[in-house]
Amino acid sequence: MIDDTFYMKQALKEAHKAFEDGEVPIGAVVVLNNQVIGRGHNQVERLNDCTAHAEMIALTAAFNTLGSKYLMEATLYVTVEPCLMCAGALYWSKIGRIVYAAADDKNSYRRATGERSPFHPKTKLEAGPCEEESLQLMKTFFEQRR
């Protein structure tokens, strides 16, 4: 059965790619009608681009797949709660649903907005599965860097 856990595991595969590349291990997939239409993982270091976050790359791939700038019926699965920059892009995409594995009190959109949602009013935001695996991957990454 395909469910949120299945798709979050796809996002985790992307996060592992980032980890292997020495990038902060965050991964994302965009799903529409039970099909992954966009994938991404952090590539900030590789591309020397501070905007090359997993969500941004997955969104761009989804837009290109659909030939559209809106994702009203799609769901983004991301291993860590989006930052303010990614929240802005998600707002403009009008994405229908966002599911994240792990909260990020330090770098998420909430740091700038408090509990006020920066997402489109129709976007549903949910904490989802695979929180522990996502947190452990982040912890291991930063322990190796220190």
TrEMBL record:
The keyword tRNA processing belongs to this UniProt entry's keyword annotation: yes
GO biological process: tRNA wobble adenosine to inosine editing
Keyword annotations from UniProtKB, A to Z: Hydrolase, Metal-binding, tRNA processing, Zinc
Record gene name: tadA
Cross-referenced PROSITE patterns: CYT_DCMP_DEAMINASES_1, CYT_DCMP_DEAMINASES_2
Residue intervals of the CMP/dCMP-type deaminase domain: 2-112
Cofactor entry: Zn(2+)
Family annotation (HAMAP family): tRNA_aden_deaminase
Cofactor binding, per record: Binds 1 zinc ion per subunit.
Family: Belongs to the cytidine and deoxycytidylate deaminase family. ADAT2 subfamily.
Positions of the catalytic residues: 55 (proton donor)
First-tier enzyme category under EC: hydrolase
Subunit structure: Homodimer.
Purpose of the protein: Catalyzes the deamination of adenosine to inosine at the wobble position 34 of tRNA(Arg2).
Catalytic activity: adenosine(34) in tRNA + H2O + H(+) = inosine(34) in tRNA + NH4(+)
Record-listed E.C. numbers: 3.5.4.33
Any one Pfam family match given in the protein's UniProt record, by short name: dCMP_cyt_deam_1
GO molecular function, one term: zinc ion binding
Chain sites annotated for binding Zn(2+): 53, 83, 86
Name under which the protein is recorded: tRNA-specific adenosine deaminase
InterPro entries: APOBEC/CMP_deaminase_Zn-bd, CMP_dCMP_dom, Cytidine_deaminase-like, tRNA_aden_deaminase
